[in-house]
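Tip: read the tokens left to right.
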């Protein structure tokens, strides 16, 4: 399966409670694919800067570099923002663009609406949309409803992703379950499990045909504050792609609040 069709599944939370004005994150990833002779290993690094000019608004800038065996090097730029509009609504907006490669989008737009309900405003139904255009003929449109519950020192999220890929008007879907345990300023640990099917029209074949492969992705990440304004983060993940490859990923990084 072409790697550019693997849509990252992430959990987004409001940044309105964070106390920093600036946050800098620097990290790297190493991914080992099996069979390694066929797919090789992937390496990447990123720098991400958050700025909170107001208590209800945070934006960030991100730069990523990638090096993949058999697929070459590439870079990605990201601009995103979190905005609390009132007591019941916050949004997340994201725009990214990658250099010409087989695995990054030419451009990608994400928009998510989160609605805070309940007596404590700790139940958050959401609806999100993604549009991605690649350097070949492929385009993806994704809609993903979900719900998040914020408890005492834990967060649990479920999201369902419905993907429409063109050309071919090919449909597929996947699900994400995420559990986070911790406390801001001390530590957070997240267990994410995503599963489903990725499908698209393989236009590189002499007779284009639909390709659909089931996938399972399990990740465990941890963020730990060493000081009130400095800490470390890291994670391990496993991806199984049906009739494709298995991927083992390690991430490590540091963050600093200003």
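Filled-in amino acids:
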């Amino acid at each position: 399966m072409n790697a550019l069709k693997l849509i990252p599944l992430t959990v987004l939370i409001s940044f309105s409670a964070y106390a920093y004005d600036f946050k800098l994150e620097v990290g790297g990833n190493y991914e080992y694919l099996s069979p390694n002779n066929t797919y090789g290993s992937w390496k990447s690094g990123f720098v991400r800067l958050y700025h909170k000019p107001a208590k209800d608004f945070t934006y960030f800038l991100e730069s990523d570099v990638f090096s993949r065996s058999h697929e070459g090097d590439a870079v990605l730029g990201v601009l995103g923002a979190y905005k609390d509009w009132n007591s019941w609504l916050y949004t997340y907006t994201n725009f990214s663009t990658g250099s010409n490669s087989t695995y990054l989008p030419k451009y990608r737009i994400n928009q998510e609406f989160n609605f805070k309900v309940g007596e404590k405003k700790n139940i958050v139904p959401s609806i999100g949309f993604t549009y991605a255009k690649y350097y070949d003929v492929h385009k993806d449109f994704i809609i993903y409803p979900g719900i998040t519950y914020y408890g005492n020192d834990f967060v649990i999220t479920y999201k369902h992703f419905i993907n429409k890929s063109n050309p071919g008007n090919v449909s597929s879907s996947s699900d994400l379950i995420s559990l986070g345990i911790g406390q801001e300023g001390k530590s957070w640990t997240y267990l994410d499990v995503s599963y489903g099917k990725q499908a698209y029209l393989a236009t590189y074949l002499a007779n284009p045909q639909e390709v659909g492969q089931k996938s399972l992705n399990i990740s465990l990440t941890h963020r730990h504050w060493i000081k009130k304004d400095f800490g470390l983060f890291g994670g391990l993940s496993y991806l199984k792609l049906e009739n494709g490859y298995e991927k083992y990923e390690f991430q490590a990084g540091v963050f600093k609040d200003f």
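The CA atoms of residues 1 and 81 lie 32 Å apart. The radius of gyration is 18 Å.
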